[in-house]
Amino acid sequence: MDIPPAPVSPKTVFSSSARAKEYRLSSQEFHLVLVNTEGAGASYPLGSTLKIGKESDNDVVVDHPTMSRNHLVITRQGDRFLVEDLKSTNGTFIDGAQVQVAYLRPGALLELGDVQLRIQAKHAPVEIAPTNEDRLGDLVGVSLPMRQIFALLSRISPTDSTLLLVGETGCGKGAAAKTVHQLSPRAAGPFIVFDCASVSDSLIESELFGHEKGAFTGAVNQRVGCLERADGGTLFLDEIDDLALDLQPKLLRALEDREFRRLGASTAPIRFDTRVVVASKKDLWAETKAGRFREDLYFRLSVFTVSLPSLRDRKEDIPLLVDAFAGSKLWERLPPQVREQFNNHTWPGNVRELRNALERAKHMSDMPELASEVLLREVAVPSSTQGETLPVNFGGPFKECKEELVRAFEREYLTRLVARSHGNIAKAARDAGLDRKHLYSLLHKYGLVQSEAE
Fold first, then answer.
1. Closest of 255, 277, 24 to residue 159, by C-alpha
2. N or C: which end of the chain has fewer CB within 10 A?
3. Is 172 left (phi over 0), alpha (psi -120 to 50) or beta?
4. What are phi and psi of 10, to 5 degrees?
């Protein structure tokens, strides 16, 4: 999906701080690549329309005896590409099946007579100037990466393109999805949230598509699924990386065809008109390459990809977030030592941890507004043990709480290690008993160095 032109920052928009940590804002680009015949490897970008044939007035001219003068036309319809055979002599085939009119998916093989082309998708960085605003819907931030994200979301929200949000637990993916819905023409429609990790694999299909009475043991009533309930609005699929592999092709088919059947239904498919936004705490492309997520579904969901930064990498946003959660100008009223502890905290739970800490402090205080002493005890490490105790979250799933604690430990350990060695990485590696390359990998992971030369 093309987005309107915008002024481009004179410097790369992905470098947000001295740590040079990149936050990817990307969109899909599609190409048809010639697989065989003379000129194999040639690539043709797919725009709004692409006409293919032997005649010179086609957008793609392939001079081959099995190709018709005007063989077919490909038309972009939102996130999909519609292939229409123009009454060719030798026909049009997609993955071996002859078609007259059909939708083309990334990775599919298109055969025009004996000529083969494959549609390929890749992600390209979106260079976009940041906004001057520090808020967008439910999102708050003055940092460069957040203002770049605000600019992108403002422009893609009015479209129906699917959107993939990537980021650590608690970094605001749900708030971003809700903001996209609020800024879209579907704002008056429903906003349905479905957490793919919260339902067992045996029930998730029913939750998504619904079921008829008697479809399986325990189905005593008809159930309307999330896709149907989100009709006319937005469906937010959280933790999409936890969706079982055997269910992924069913979701893909529903999104491609814009229709589905409830479990146990014998009637015609149900059509739906829903915009889909998904979120993943993992790098979904890495999951795809590892075989844990289907490539075709990945490309179907990631028309635009936005990687949300962790709170520890945008600490300049903490004062604004504190004021937003408190509903008042609280930050400047906090004692200096409290503000310092906020800024030094690693926030493994990200924005959610900050919000929950403020909420706990508010309920524990007898005052109508937050008391700094309560806030300090809830969030900061006591001065006598500061730096010796890591924040532990006992309120979530075991796996997530463990991962948060491990991340906090690694970052704190590495920070102290580098400080003790005065930046001498070779000495730090010896002290830690780590291979130097592995240490560099860990330091890059947490933005503690920019390059080995440093």
1. 277
2. C
3. left
4. -65, -15
β-pairing, 163-166 vs 304-307, is parallel
Tokens of 291: 């075989």
3-state SS class at 222: coil
In sequence order, the β-bridge partners of residue 237 are: 194, 278
CA 407, 409, 415, 421 torsion-angle sign: negative
- Whole-angstrom distance, CA of residue 285 vs CA of residue 41: 24
Instruction: Give pLDDT tens digits for 268-295.
Output: 899 999 999 999 998 898 899 889 999 8
Contact 166, 284 (CB under 8 A): yes
- Reported as a single tens digit per residue, the pLDDT across 1-19 is 444 433 333 222 322 333 3
Q: d(Cα 417, Cα 413) in Å, to the nearest integer? A: 6
Whole-angstrom CA distances from 278 to 89, 151, 209, 235, 348 are 42, 19, 17, 8, 22
Beta strand 25-34 with 43-45 is: antiparallel
Q: What is the pLDDT of residue 373?
A: 45
> Which of 357, 396, 395 has the alpha carbon at shortest distance from 377?
357
Rounded to whole angstroms, the Cα distance separating 270 from 272 reads 7
Specify the pLDDT at position 387: 44
- Greatest CA span in the chain, whole angstroms? 85
What are the phi and psi torsion angles at 64 (to 5°)? -140, 140
Q: What is the pTM of this model?
A: 0.69
CB 130 within 8 A of CB 9: yes
pLDDT digits (tens, 9 = 90+) for 120-157: 887 777 778 899 999 999 999 999 999 999 999 999 99
Judged by DSSP in three states, 317 sits in helix
Structure tokens at 279: 């979120």
Where are the strands (E) in 4-89, listed by range? 25-34, 43-45, 49-53, 60-61, 72-77, 80-85
Q: Are 266 and 226 in contact (CB under 8 A)?
A: no
Q: Which two tokens stand for residue 266?
A: 């014998």
8-state DSSP, 35: -
82 neighbors 75 (Cβ within 8 angstroms): yes
Task: Give the mean pLDDT of the chain.
Answer: 82
Q: Coil, helix or strand for 80?
A: strand
Asked whether 141 and 351 are in contact (CB, 8 A), the reply is no
What's the confidence (pLDDT) of residue 10? 28
Distances (CA, A) of 213 to 204, 210, 217: 17, 10, 10
